[in-house]
Design a protein that fits this description.
Elements (H helix, E strand, L loop, with lengths): L12 E3 L9 H11 L9 E5 L6 E6 L9 E5 L10 H13 L6 E5 L2 E5 L4 E2 L8 H15 L13 H17 L7 H6 L3 H15 L6 E4 L8 E4 L4 E4 L6 E4 H10 L15 H18 L8 H32 L6 H20 L5
Parallel strand pairs: 1-5
Antiparallel strand pairs: 2-3, 3-4, 4-6, 5-6, 7-9, 8-11, 9-10
Helix pairs in contact: 3-8, 4-6, 4-9, 7-9, 8-9, 9-10
EC number: 2.7.1.82
Enzyme class: transferase
InterPro entries: Kinase-like_dom_sf
């Protein structure tokens, strides 16, 4: 467990506490002693959430988890500092909270963060295809995509930089001859040379199709969507990868998540009819949020549909690289090798079809 890295958090409270992944209670109680001093240690309950495949997440509360005041403690996964910018993550938390699109972050600590518990339940995969639910998700994403920073400086799109970073880390990991390598990964994953060529092909093709750069979540799988049935609303959580990216990437990435995580099944990828209805709700929300007439035309939906199909390729490629790294470094019990293979298999299966789609 690496608890040595410390980084400045601006005005955010930073606590010099390290939480042990295997025995977290002692460290968590130390954090809560500062954040919730009125809580008696013997009354504090902790619920470990098992949905995550990057970090360890615990809900801390007295009484009921759904009552106000509950605290989420996130312990960073092993070696994730290689590819997650933790300072940027905190900045995204604060931006989204300011715009009423995210929970309040309370503090950072040596190997994690604490933030506000969002009332509701993690969205069940089966609800993704229900119109009332997916329209709520589309509407919320439209709101987030409309957020503009106060600075006049042009925003930087992070996709190709992030993809190149992942590819370099994969290359470095595979070049390390002292570490064991998975024969399954080496046999079924394309070579570094092939992956590098594919990334350049993606960059050439996707950079030319006119998808705007917006503030994106970039990791909208169901475990990062909280559904409040009583209020009839959804909220997004976990902003490790949130940053400015192509609009169509964020949507295409979410559509890829219909296939699930543990048992990836791309037959569940949304049908064109569902995608178009989703995109219509999204465009209505996005246009309204940026002050435009909210009427959506068939031409607008079709253009975004094609862009999303194409950027879904970039999503599969990026997370395929990510899964190779997780297979190498993560201590979480998950078959990252199979996940990487599934992501790349679907990328190559759909590449020719999606590259062939035209915007007109």
């Amino acid at each position: 467990m690496d608890c040595g890295s410390k980084c400045p958090r601006g005005q955010l409270l930073h606590l010099d506490v390290c939480v042990d992944e295997q025995k977290p209670r002692g460290g968590v109680l130390e954090l809560l002693g500062r954040l919730r001093p009125q809580w008696k240690p013997q009354d504090i309950k902790m619920k470990v959430f098992t949905e995550g495949i990057t970090n360890q997440l615990m809900g801390c509360f007295v009484g009921s988890l759904q009552e106000s005041g509950a605290v989420l403690v996130r312990v960073y996964g092993r070696m994730t500092e290689l590819y997650v910018d933790r300072e940027r993550e905190v900045e995204m938390f604060q931006i989204l909270h300011t715009h009423n699109c995210g929970p309040q972050i309370y503090c950072s600590f040596r190997n994690g963060i604490c933030y506000e518990f969002v009332r509701g339940n993690v969205l069940d995969d089966t609800l993704l295809t229900q119109p009332a639910i997916y329209r709520l998700i589309a509407t919320e994403m439209g709101k987030i995509h409309s957020i503009k920073l106060e600075s006049d400086n042009p925003v930087e799109n992070i996709l190709w930089k992030k993809m190149a970073q992942f590819l370099k880390l994969v290359h470095n990991a595979q070049s390390n001859t002292t570490a064991p390598h998975s024969s399954k990964l080496l046999r079924e994953i394309p070579s570094i040379e092939t992956l590098s060529d594919e990334m350049e092909t993606l960059k050439r093709h996707l950079s030319q199709i006119g998808s705007p750069t917006v503030l994106c979540h970039n990791d909208l799988l169901t475990k990062n969507i909280i559904y409040d049935n009583k209020e009839g609303m959804v909220r997004f959580i976990d902003y490790e990868y949130a940053d400015f990216n192509y609009q169509a990437f964020d949507i295409g990435n979410h559509f890829n998540e219909f296939a699930g995580t543990s048992d990836t099944d791309y037959s569940l990828y949304p049908r064109p009819e569902l995608q178009r209805d989703w995109l219509t709700a999204y465009l209505e929300s996005y246009k309204h949020s940026v002050g435009l007439e909210a009427t959506v035309t068939e031409l607008e939906v079709q253009k975004l549909y094609v862009q999303v199909c194409k950027f879904s390729l970039a999503s599969n490629f990026l997370w395929g690289l990510w899964a190779i790294l997780q297979a190498r470094y993560s201590s979480i019990d998950f078959d990252f090798e199979r996940y990487a293979i599934n992501r790349f298999d679907y990328y190559f299966e759909k590449k020719e079809e999606y590259f062939g789609l035209t915007l007109s």
